[in-house]
Amino acid sequence: MGTGKSTFINTLCDEDVIPVNRAPPKDGMVIENNSATIFEGGTKINLDIVLASGFGDSIDNTDSTAKLVEYLEAQFEVALKEECKIQRSASFKDTRVHAALYFIRPTGKGLRPLDIQCLKAIGERCNVIPIISKGDLLTEEERALNKQLIMKNIRDSNIQVYDFSTCFEDIEEELPGLGAKNMVPFSIVSGTERKLIDNVEYKVRKLPHGIVKVDDPSHSDFLLLRTCLLGACLQDLKDTTHEIFYERYRTEKLSEARRDTEKASEPKPRSNGKPISAKRVRYKKRKINGKNQDLATRLMSPQPFTLERMLAILHAICDEFDQREEISNDVGLMNEIATLTSLKTLVKLSGNDTIGGGSKWRSNVEWTVVKKFAGDVGFRIENYLSY
Question: Could you tell me which residue ranges the Septin-type G domain spans (predicted)?
Fold first, then answer.
């Protein structure tokens, strides 16, 4: 028996986005992408849905968490590569996951070891929202107990979940009196069937012993969750993804790239059957500095430095120091170039406008930036670019 993810998505979107009665995947967990368009309060919302079908259903779920982490980081990597481009695509689509709804079976025992492992891993990479699925199976006392046990596991395991406190005022404004502060984890009931009750149309779930109103706060937290996802917390979820999780990933990756570049740019003592000594390393450094002067002579030009000329210099320097990787593959360097480009609207890809206008780099902010990424390829521009 599943956790009701497909039914929840169809209820949330008010349409059959995912077939409910389909067979589960045979080869463990499968990540599926779906999309839907929702109109909330007159606002059109294009919703991208990533479904981890079959998660936790196999005997061996060892790789399930790793697959989810790999997917989340892959979306960050796509965004980072686009950000590092000098000319970004106007049609670029952001595929980063802004909210991860984690469905928990109401067992009365709290979280399973697999739940804790997965929540800790994805909680460091996206906004996690824990959900108790199929809340119609619980009495009020059982629902309260499950919420208490799950939150205790979350606190004891230092699991990072989305902080709704910044949205309390907006939630209370839209749904006053629902006790938003005690809503996590949400206990939901899903159902797409509609029924007219006392001249009011409700989404309902039919059970052998009666009918559960999906939108009724006394029966389910569904309305509260929907309000958070599509209204009160929508922008904050996106901002948190970009400013915290993506920025953390971006910083780590660019720091790694910078360390790798600095390491590659250092003169490496090679034995070639001869003893290695500090004196030999110092000799090699002097030899490289001499090459810098020769390179400066070849590259000097009375013409103003355009972006195209700057890139040509960087290519030449990379070749000079046996750094054969293309600049486009150096994420750290490309990020610095993108930063430089954004500093001056005068810098055009056509190369018609000069960096800093007619003045010299040395007297402009750009000079500081140039020196910064110049160091990343193992040289100092000041050594051979004289004015």
Answer: 1-256
**pLDDT tens for residues 97-111?**
999 999 999 888 899
Find the largest Cα–Cα distance for the chain. 94
**Residue 39 pLDDT > 90, yes or no?**
no
**Dihedral (C-alpha) 115, 119, 121, 122: value to the nearest 10 degrees?**
130
Better-predicted residue by pLDDT, 339 or 73: 73
Task: Report pTM.
Answer: 0.66
Helix (DSSP H) and strand (DSSP E) numbers for the chain: 12, 8
CA torsion sign, 251 to 254 to 258 to 259?
Answer: positive
Cis peptide, bond prior to residue 185, ω within 30 of zero = yes
For 175, phi and psi rounded to 5 degrees? -130, 75
Residue type, 38: I
SS3 45: strand
Distance from C-alpha of 278 to C-alpha of 88, rounded to nearest angstrom: 46
Long-range residue pairs from 66-75, CB within 8 A, at least 24 positions apart, any chain = 67/29, 67/31, 68/31, 68/118, 68/121, 68/122, 69/121, 69/122, 69/125, 71/31, 71/97, 72/97, 72/122, 72/125, 72/126, 73/125, 73/249
Position with higher pLDDT, 279 vs 337 = 337
Give the domains, in start order, of the chain with CATH numbers: 5-248 (3.40.50.300), 276-383 (no CATH)
Phi and psi angles of residue 57, each rounded to the nearest 5 degrees, phi first: -95, -10
